[in-house]
Amino acid sequence: MNKTLFLIALKKAMTSNNHTQIDLANAVNVGQSQISKILNGEFSRKGTAINKLIQYSNYNEYNESELTSPEINKAVAEVWDGSKRMEMQIAKIIREIGAVWQL
């Protein structure tokens, strides 16, 4: 999951619903302190709280209008943590694969 895109979607949903952290915690039955940590990016990719917040925010990082295939988008989403450092590493690997494939 791309944390950056997820957090953008979550914050947008909170704004749209006029929810504070406490409102959100009550709406999804997750502790407010856990909501605070998640909003600060302190979470792993899996877990009950994250799953509830994905549903709340209607987060879907797979967009059919993108230039890549859904399978490639899914593979990237499964490993990319949203950081610039990892983005650069994934891009480097993709370029290396392209160079080998063209031999």
Question: How would you briefly describe this protein structure?
Answer:
With 103 residues, this protein is an all-alpha fold. Helix content is 66%, strand content 0%. It has 6 helices and no strands.
The proportion of residues forming helix, as a percent range, comes to 55-70%
Number of helices: 6
The helix-strand sequence is: HHHHHH
Percentage of residues in DSSP E strands: under 5%
Rg computed from alpha carbons, rounded to a whole number of angstroms: 16 Å
The CATH architecture of the largest domain would be: Orthogonal Bundle
Largest sheet: none
> Any idea of the CATH topology of the largest domain?
434 Repressor (Amino-terminal Domain)
Compute the number of strand runs: 0
* Average pLDDT reading: 86
Structural class: mainly alpha
| Shape field | elongated
Gap from first CA to last CA: 33 Å
Architecture blueprint of SSEs:
Layout: H1 3-16, H2 21-28, H3 32-39, H4 48-57, H5 70-79, H6 84-101
Helix pairs in contact: 1-4, 2-3
